[in-house]
Amino acid sequence: MRQFPQRPLPPWNRAVLKVGSSLLADASGELTEHNARPLAQFIAASRSAGRDVVLVSSGAVAAGRARVPAQGARPSLVLRQALAALGQTRMISLWQGLIDTPVAQVLLTHDDLRNRRRYLNARNTLIELLRLGSVPIINENDTVAVEELKLGDNDNLAATVAALIDADLLLIASDVDGLFSAHPLRDASAQPVESVTAITPAVLAMAGDPGSVLGTGGMRTKLEAAQKAASAGIPTVLFNGADAASTALLAAGSFRGTCFEAPSTRLAARKYWLRHAGTASGSIRIDAGAAQALRGGKSLLPGGILGVDGEFARGDIVDIVQAEPPGVVARGLAQYNAGEVRRLAGHHTREIETLLGFSYGDTVVRRDDLVTLGNPA
């Protein structure tokens, strides 16, 4: 069987690394450093190079199960929730013991990511944690989640988090070398698939069944995650996290495995969506100076705002309208709701917290959440 060649990683400054239960737990479910240590070394090397890594780690249910043995092959939902609570602290302790800088536990459910306000709060918290120099460790909030405890949820969660934090790359550490044309243990003719430009039915057909008793995912969920990341302009690299040599390559800017390409850059995908999204919820009127700044690639600050028309919530799409000469010059995602923007209009950014009693940041619309109209994105 042919092996995966060594190739350069896509360029990146911020990545999400997903690690599954099969890499962290032994056959009894006890957590082990064997595979986690090389992955932690990659995180440390990335941080030393000025790059951000957010870790999405499974293993809580497996670790909890090791504490309460003889619970049957397929525990009930309520038992799985209890096992997650028992094992979560052990999983975090494992990573903190391997990573020199502080780690931060973040538990999410799909509800947190469907609700726009909670989505933005999660985004701002994670970006602030990175700014503080910590390593966020994300897992499903399995102790309260119901539908989230399903096949491969952490693979898909990792893709969602990658879009949430504007990552450049999604790394999925698996216990296989990458995607093969068929199951490599069952078909001697199986060939490694080095690159995938699109997740087609033929590619999905290459995925086998879940391959681990401890884990909840399989190759199909990894393909779903790669597809979700690609739609946000983020490439995905699938590699063997059980092979220390493959993990060591990452710090040197290379990998062995499968690269799922993204059709466009992350920023281009976001701006395409903004340009072609439906009707805006409201509009923000700005002066000529602010309009010129937006066309020059700047964020929208309170000082250039003249007023607000309509009502919108934080995170809604808004049109940004120049008063003179009149016309829509841009659209973007509002960091504050309509009432808050009205209170901020014409004021300096340093006055935001004084005026509102809180702050979501210095910008009303961030430049990465904004596209100018009538000009190239």
Task: Note the topology.
Elements: E1 6-8, E2 14-19, H1 21-24, H2 33-48, E3 52-57, H3 60-67, H4 77-98, E4 103-108, H5 110-114, H6 116-131, E5 135-140, H7 153-164, E6 169-174, E7 195-196, H8 201-204, H9 219-231, E8 236-240, H10 244-251, E9 254-260, H11 266-276, E10 282-286, H12 288-295, E11 305-310, E12 317-322, E13 327-333, H13 338-344, H14 352-356, E14 370-372
Parallel strand pairs: 2-3, 2-6, 3-5, 4-5, 6-8, 7-9, 10-12
Antiparallel strand pairs: 1-9, 8-9, 10-11, 12-13, 13-14
Helix pairs in contact: 2-10, 3-4, 7-9
Descriptive notes:
It is a single chain. This protein has 377 residues and is an alpha/beta fold. The protein has 2 domains: 6-263, Acetylglutamate kinase-like (Carbamate kinase, 3-Layer(aba) Sandwich), CATH 3.40.1160; 270-372, Roll (Archaeosine Trna-guanine Transglycosylase, Chain: A, domain 4). 37% of the residues lie in helices and 20% in strands. The protein has helices spanning 21-24, 33-48, 60-67, 77-98, 110-114, 116-131, 153-164, 201-204, 219-231, 244-251, 266-276, 288-295, 338-344, 352-356, and strands at 6-8, 14-19, 52-57, 103-108, 135-140, 169-174, 195-196, 236-240, 254-260, 282-286, 305-310, 317-322, 327-333, 370-372. The strands form 2 sheets. Strands 1, 2, 3, 4, 5, 6, 7, 8 and 9 form a 9-stranded mixed β-sheet that branches. The longest helix is centred in the first third of the chain and has 22 residues, at 77-98. The model is unreliable at 148-152 and 210-216 (pLDDT under 50).
